[in-house]
Amino acid sequence: MSKYTSDPEVVWKHEIELDDIIEVELPISAEVLLFSKQGSSFYLWEKHKVRHNNDRMPSTLIILGTGHQSPDEWQLGKHLGTIQDSFFVWHLFEVYDQRGNMS
User: Fold this and answer.
1) How far is Cα 10 from Cα 95, in angstroms, rounded to an integer?
2) What is the Cα–Cα distance from 86 to 83, expressed in whole angstroms?
3) Which pLDDT value is given to residue 99?
């Protein structure tokens, strides 16, 4: 059996504003690979199935500094990465609403 698939994937880079709450549209099969700083900007790298290039869904992400509390209306989900930026450390998470629905 071959290890290769006929369902190719691609890696895309998205610039992320260093803001508390981030709204981003990602392809439906996106899997976050890295959250990092490049030059003076912050980016999220993700891979997804090429067939989903145009099939996107809105995602809500949150950036928290170390020691900062998440807002009451959001529940932290999967940790997507951490960046050390000079003496600041930023953590990127998926977030869920109070009912546990991914935003």
Assistant:
1) 25
2) 10
3) 56
Residue 70 lies in a domain: yes
In a domain, 18, yes or no: yes
Answer for the pair 70, 56: CB distance below 8 angstroms, yes or no. no
Domain that holds residue 72: 9-96
Q: Are 61 and 26 in contact (CB under 8 A)?
A: no
For position 74, what pLDDT does the model report?
82
Nearest alpha-carbon partner for 61 in 89, 28, 24, 27: 24
Residue labelled with tokens 């290769």: 4
Query: What are the backbone angles phi and psi of residue 73, rounded to the nearest 5°?
Result: -80, -5
The reply to whether 103 falls in a domain is no
Residue 42 lies in a domain: yes
pLDDT along the chain (103 residues), means of 10: 75 90 90 93 94 90 93 89 93 78 57
**In this structure, what token pair is assigned to residue 42?**
């912050």
**Taking the model in full, what pTM does it have?**
0.81
